Amino acid sequence: MTERAAVKAALKTQAVETPSWAYGNSGTRFKVFAQQGVPRDPREKLDDAAKVHEFTGVAPTVALHIPWDKVDDYAALARHAEDRGLRLGAINSNTFQDDAYRLGSVCHPDAAVRRKAVDHLLECVGIMDATGSKDLKLWFADGTNYPGQDDIRARQDRLAEALAEVYERLGDDQRMLLEYKLFEPAFYATDVPDWGTAYAHCLKLGPKAQVVVDTGHHAPGTNIEFIVATLLREEKLGGFDFNSRFYADDDLMVGAADPFQLFRIMYEVIRGGGLSRDVAFMLDQCHNVEAKIPAIIRSVMNVQEATAKALLVDRPALDEAQRAGDVLGANAVLMDAFSTDVRPLLREVREEMGLDPDPMGAYARSGWAEKIVAERVGGQQAGWGA
Ligand code: PSV
Ligand code: MN
To answer: Least buried of 27, 49, 93, 116, by fewest C-beta within 10 Å?
Structure first.
C-alpha cells in the first residue's frame, strides 16, 4: 500500500461518536435560545444523528445521557438506531441534576445519597445491557465550595467504594470511562479534578476502568497531548470528549478554537497506537447559537482533518531529526504536516466511500433542515436537562 493509500484507509475506519444532547436545545446560565426543528425525543435525536453519519460516513454511534434519553424500551431504541445505520454508544450517567446531590453524589457525606447515586450508575449498566453499549461514561459534579466544608480524603474513599461496586457489575466486554474536570460546579475542590486522580482510581479498579479526556476540562495552557501520550503509554486512555474551549468548559465545536492543539493530540494518539486501539472518539458539545446538525458535521470534519494531518507526519524523518538533536528540523517535520491542506485528500476519501465530497453542502441541499422545521411542530423540544 502506498503511504497515501494507508492514510486514506485509516481515515475510512475512524469513527467519531456524536452526543445525543448536542441535537437538543442548550444554552448558558443566562439563556437557552430554542431553535426550530429541534428533536422532541431520543428517536428524533437519532434521526438527526443519522444525517450526520449519512453525510460524513464516520459517525456511526450516538452517546446517550440518562435520564435525558430515558425511554421505556431501550432495545426498541437500539433498533430505531439500527434501522438508520447507527448504533447506540456510550451511556453517560447523570448524578448532578437532582436536589439530593447539592453536596455531591457518590462522595456525598450521607450514605443514603451515595446509595441513590450508585443505584443510578447500576441502572445505567442495565441500560448498556439492553442497548449493547460498551462504555459507561462517568462524570461527577462532586466537590466542595469552601475549605473545611467536607473531608477531602473521606470523599476519595467514598468515591473509590462507589466505583468498585459499579465496576463489579460490568460485563466482560463493558468498560467504565472516568472523566475528570478541573472545576465547576464545585469551585474549591473537585473530587475528580485531573487525570492523575482519575488514573489512580482506574488503576486500582482494573483493566475495565479507563480515563476519558474531555478537551475542555483543563486549566488554560495545559499540555493535553502530554496527558494523552502518558495515558496511552499506561494503556489507560479510554476515550475523548472532544470540544473547544477559549476560557472554561465552553463546549464549542472541536477544532474551532485551536486546530493546532487538536492536531497535536491526534499525533500523540497515532504515535501511541490509539487509532487502532479501543479509544472512543466522542464529541461532547453544545450548539447554543449555531445550527446544530451542520455544527456537528463540521466538528466531525475537524476531527478528520486533524487526524489526516497527524497521519501525514513523516515519522521516519521526525525520528531521525529527533535522534540527531535537530530541534528546528524536527519541529519543521511536524509543522509541514500541520500546514498541509488535507481537504482534497478528504474529498477523495469521501468519494471512495460513495459519499458527497462536501458534507456541509450535501446536508444543506438535502432539505432535512427544512423538513424537520416543518414537521417537528408541537410537543416539548429536547433540551439540556429535559
Ligand atoms: C461535564 O461538563 C461534561 O463534560 C460531562 O461529560 C457530562 O456528561 C457532559 O458534560 C454533559 O453535560
Ligand atoms: Mn464531557
So the answer is: 27
